[in-house]
Each structure stands twice: as C-alpha cells, then as structure tokens.
Amino acid sequence: MKILGIETSCDETAAAVVEDGRKLLGETVASQIETHAKFGGVVPEVASRQHVQSITAVVEDAMNKSGVAFDDLDAIAVTCGPGLLGALLVGVSAAKGYSLATGLPLVPVHHIAGHVAASFVGTDMALPVLALVVSGGHTELLVVNESFEFHKLGGTKDDAAGEAYDKVARIIGLSYPGGPKVDELAEKGNPEAYRFPRALMDEDTYDFSFSGLKSAVANELVKQNRRQEEVVPADVCASFQQAVVDVLVEKTARAAAETGLNQVVVAGGVAANQGLRRGLKAKGDEQGFRVYFPPVRLCTDNAAMIAAAGYFLASQGRFADLYLNAYAALSLEDWQRMYRSGMFANGM
Fold first, then answer.
1. Cα 242 from Cα 248, distance rounded (Å)
2. What does residue 161 show for φ and ψ, rounded to 5 degrees?
3. How far is CA 106 from CA 30, 75, 82, 344, in A?
C-alpha cells in the first residue's frame, strides 16, 4: 500500500510517499526557518502564505523522487490538526484537490499520531508500543494498541518539554530555534553545575510539569547577575537538560514496567535531543525494553510520518469525505472519537 502524505501544520511544507508504513520512497520538505528566524518565532500568516506558494511544487517533487504515479497510490493522508489553522487549511485543501482529481481516498491524520508513526519508518517494529511524545506543544505518554489507537497515560500540566527548551534558550540569549542550540551547548557543559528541580518525578503520576523548571533557570540567572557572577551558558544548558531528561526517563521507564510493553518509541522534535537519546537507551538496556528513535530528520515536522500513520489507518478503511476540515485545537481523544462516530466520512 502506497500512501502520499501531506504536512503543513506549522512552518514546514512537506510531502512524502511511503510504502506499507515502513519504506520511504521519496520526500520533499520546504523549510521556513530562515523566514521566521528574524521574528524570533513562527508568524502564522506568513507561514500560511508560504505554504500556498510551495505546496504544489513540493508534492510534485516528492512524487518525482518516489518514482510513483498517482495511479500507483492507494490513498492521500494529510494532517488535519492540531496546528496553525491557516497552515493546516492549505494542506487539507491541497489533499482534497488531489483526492477529487484522482479519486483516491482521504485519510485525516492527527499530528501526534504522525510523530509516533515516524518511528516505524525503516524498522520492522510491530504494535503495540509505549510512546513518549516530546515536542514544543506536547509532552505525553501514550499506549498505542494493535489497531493504532491511543490511550493517554499522562501529559503536561503546563509547559511542554520543547516549549521549556525554547524559553530557556531565549533567557540565555540563544537565537531561534533555541531547542537544538540548548542541546548543542549542553554537550559542552557540566550537568551538575546547578541542581534544578525535577517536578513530579517521584509522584505516582504520568503527568509532567516544566514551567517551574524554566522559572528556576530564570531566577538562578537573575541571582548570579545580581552577585555579578559569571554565567556559563553551557553549564546552565547542561544542568537544565539533565533535569528534563531525568524526569522523562524515569516516567517512561515506570510506564514500560507497569504496562509490560517492551517497545518504546520516542516522537516529536525533542526526540532528536542527544541527552534524551543517551539517557533512555541506557535505561532501556538496564530495564530490558527497546527504545526506537526516528532518524533525526524525521523527528521534526515531515510528511513521511503522516504517510506512515496514513497506512495504519487506511489499512483499516478509515477514510474521510471531501467535507474534511482542519482543526487548530484537536486532541487525540477527539480525533479518535470523530473516526468512531463517522464524522470524517459523513460530511460533518
């Protein structure tokens, strides 16, 4: 089964063709990082306009790279939410246009489900799995069953891990996007230089909280500046990152033990973080579960993950009609409820 995936939820215009949810045949990503860097973050209206300008060429290029014609495809998968509404609408509209022109069925994909599916590309991993989702807007532990359905064990109560990374980067004075720069500096610093808090780590919950950690970093730098002490950014980054990694690793390991799942996938932009990769792999080796990380290029927003998720859904006949809409705020629970109730396929 060959699926064309389209992703435009934020500032990446992406298309890809994936076979059987595993084999990436071709992909193209048009990044807007340089465009938004001068604003210090993504400007929704600018992102939407660039998607409009890029989407057709991106899809054509991905199809050419894959060596697949539209007649060879089985379905078109597209991110329907969550994300920036204007940006999502470009991708959904494009997917509906291609569906109308070719007669191919539409598969609405939740953005987080896509990130989870990225770990299946290039592997022989089978469902069920435990998924740790760590990105700018999400930090969640999920059980993904044999039917590619999601059960949430816990999530963020305030700042997501990636959001905390970006805020700490701004506090230190690092340019956008800050998360990867914090990770890079952390490799050069002393993780024991500061003892930042590990919120909720020892509590009987799978929820996360990183707002207090971000505030602790800001307060520590204010104190050092008042005392006219030298601030070593690498030490701040290393200590901050160690606090984040300790919480993520501990809760994931506890969830793996309690659910009995020995396959753990890590999804989202923070899955590219080197400290997290080392920490979780070491814990998996110690406790006896295997950890799957997507290739670094598939950790950030891409269309291969949407096509891979589309395979799991299309193989169960989960499709939408041409009334498909975009949803800026869409939880995994609501997305699954819309599938179960037939909303995607009944013009609602």
1. 10
2. -60, -45
3. 23, 6, 17, 10
Domain 128-293 is in which class? alpha beta
Superfamily of domain 2-118+299-345: ATPase, nucleotide binding domain (3.30.420.40)
For the chain, 348 residues long, give each residue's pLDDT as a single digit of tens.
999 999 999 888 999 999 999 999 999 998 766 675 766 777 778 888 988 999 999 999 999 999 999 999 999 999 999 999 999 999 999 999 999 999 999 999 999 999 999 999 999 899 999 999 998 888 999 999 999 999 999 999 998 999 999 999 999 999 877 888 999 999 999 999 999 999 988 888 999 999 999 999 999 999 999 999 999 999 999 999 999 999 999 999 999 999 999 999 999 989 999 999 999 999 999 999 999 999 988 998 999 999 999 999 999 999 999 999 999 999 999 999 999 998 888 654
Please list, residue by residue across 183-204, b when 16 or more beta carbons sit within 10 angstroms of its beta carbon and e when fewer do.
Answer: bebbeebebeebebebbbbeee
Nearest to 269 by CA among 85, 139, 110: 139
Tokens, residue 203: 């509590």
Query: How far, in Å, CA of 165 to CA of 236, rounded?
Result: 12
For 274, the enclosing helix (H) or strand (E) is helix 274-287
Distance CA 127, CA 254 (A): 19
Which pairing describes strands 2-7 and 75-81: parallel, antiparallel, or unpaired?
parallel
Q: How far apart are CA 83 and CA 79, in angstroms?
A: 9
- CATH 3.30.420.40 in the chain, residues? 2-118+299-345, 128-293
DSSP assignments along 107-167, one per residue: EEEEHHHHHHHGGGTTS---S-EEEEEESSS-EEEEEE-TTS-EEEEEEBSSS-HHHHHHH
- Residue 164 near residue 244, CB atoms below 8 Å: yes
Q: Which pair of tokens denotes residue 63?
A: 């199809």
